[in-house]
Amino acid sequence: MNAFIAIVRRDLLLAARRKSEVFTALFFFMIVVSLFPLGIGPETAMLRRIAPGVLWVAALLAAMLSLNRLFAADHQDGTLEQMSLSPTPLALLVSGKVLAHWLTSGLPLVLLAPVLGLQFDLSPRALGVLMVSLLLGTPVLSLVGAIGAALTLGVRGGGVLLSLLVLPLYIPALIFGAGAVEADVAGLGAGGHLSLLGALLALGVFFAPWAATAALRIALE
Amino acid sequence: MSQRLVNWFKFASPASFYPLAGKMWPWFAAIGTVLAAAGLWISFFVAPTDFQQGEGYRIIFIHVPASWMSMFIYCVMAFWAAIGITFNTRLSGMMSSALAPTGALFAFLSLWTGALWGKPMWGAWWVWDARLTSELILFFLYIGYIALTAAIDDPRRADKAGAIISLVGVVNVPIIYFSVKWWNTLHQGASVSLTKAPSMAATMLWGMLIMALAFWMYSIAIALYRVRAIILERERHTTWVAELPEMQR
């Protein structure tokens, strides 16, 4: 467990020393979200209708952008090999890296989403549901993305390939995440969607580090 | 028991599987051709015209078996992937990569014929029906597998990475299917449904089953043929390949 905390702290420290990477993904999120009203038109009723989907798709793309650097730097300087040789299970270290990745890329999106939601004229209640859905959903993105990032480690055209592999697997999170807000706006209650997102998160926490570890071992062979 | 295990693993070696596959694929291809001829004859000349959908319904004789095969082949791919990871056999990865193009082809065929069927029946080439959407996502999963294995130069590493992504995919397929289904029911209710009338004429059912069997045989034959090509490509440095009669010419 000490190793887990050490990994999280180390990755957070590294992210704090290279703030630009974190902020690039954040501004990407903001720009993508702001493009939609420009492309579709400023009618408030329509914006309110598309807001959950737009915010969620933008969150998906922003999470994708930062996935590349999840393992790449450690792979290049050999840290990853040292980790795989350490007595601590690699899956635990991978979980630590994923948690750190979420804290630097997922959590800022969650905190920023309500501000962007205001641009789309969402009600305070819907903003709350949106935040909860992102809070439950973005860790799933980091977890599933870790599998893709591990598989495409050191592979030709890794970035585009990563999106091809990971985006189809993101679909359930997108559906339930955006669906939660829509269901709440429609007065159906977001409970069911949020429970399903929580179930996805539980599944992801259990299986994804394991699959990502298997993929990393292949990349390190 | 141990004797039987030994026999099974004998064919896990590419060198002993290559001639076996060479003997088997023409048979499967022949059976597939005969079944396809019979199935097409039934579907075009024997099966009655549907009183609601007219002649256009005959697309289902291609469409439904293609959809079945696209889903089934993904499961078979994942099965070989699991075997490959468990026993570390080289042939399993080759089987997976031999099956992937066929599965992608069937997924594409199913989408294409589905669009052709949808235009006269629903008045639209594409609707966001749960089955259509999940078939499309299945197609993306196949493409992802093919792209990943093609991007990795070392074939052994490509096989293992492909095995992981196909296993992750097979776990996700039911999740994706149900999420899309619930998403769809929330959005537009049951306005459009692929579910057909409960009573299907026996000849129609037979035509469809025979076509499905024909597609099975085609898939087996083409997968065996392709796995032979993959074996030759990967084992070209070995002496057993050099000693093959077809290499002597």
Structural features:
heterodimer, A: 221 residues, mainly alpha, 9 helices, B: mainly alpha, globular
List the helices and strands and how they pair.
The complex is a heterodimer of chains A (221) and B (249).
Chain A: H1 2-17, H2 19-40, H3 44-67, H4 72-76, H5 79-85, H6 90-119, H7 124-151, H8 158-185, H9 191-220
Helix pairs in contact in A: 1-6, 2-3, 2-6, 3-6, 3-7, 3-8, 6-7, 6-9, 7-8, 7-9, 8-9
Chain B: H1 2-10, H2 14-46, H3 60-87, H4 90-122, H5 130-151, H6 155-188, H7 202-234, H8 239-242, H9 245-248
Helix pairs in contact in B: 2-7, 3-4, 3-5, 3-6, 3-7, 4-5, 4-6, 4-7, 5-6
**Number of extended strands of chain A:** 0
> Strand share of the residues of chain A?
under 5%
- Counting DSSP E segments of at least 2 residues, the number of strands of chain B comes to 0
Helix amount of chain A, in percent? over 70%
Q: Work out the oligomeric state of the chains in this entry.
A: heterodimer
Low-confidence spans of chain B: 187-194
Unreliable spans of chain A are none
Write a structural description.
The complex is a heterodimer of chains A (221) and B (249). Chain A has 221 residues and is mainly alpha-helical. Chain A has one domain (2-220). Chain A is 86% helix and 0% strand. Chain A is built from 9 helices and no strands. Chain A has helices at residues 2-17, 19-40, 44-67, 72-76, 79-85, 90-119, 124-151, 158-185, 191-220. The longest helix of chain A is centred in the middle third of the chain and has 30 residues, at 90-119. Chain A is elongated and about 55 Å long. Chain B is an all-alpha fold. Chain B has one domain (40-46, 57-192, 199-242). In chain B, 80% of the residues lie in helices and 0% in strands. Chain B has 9 helices and no strands. In chain B, α3 (60-87) runs antiparallel to α4. The longest helix of chain B has 34 residues, at 155-188. Chain B is globular and about 65 Å long. The model of chain B is unreliable at 187-194 (pLDDT under 50). The A-B interface holds A 147, 151-152, 155-158, 161, 164-165, 167-169, 171-172, 175-176, 179, 182-183, 188, 196, 200, 207, 211, 214-215, 218-219, 221 and B 85, 137, 140-141, 143-144, 147-148, 151-153, 157, 160-161, 164-165, 167-169, 171-172, 175-176, 179-180, 182-183, 186.
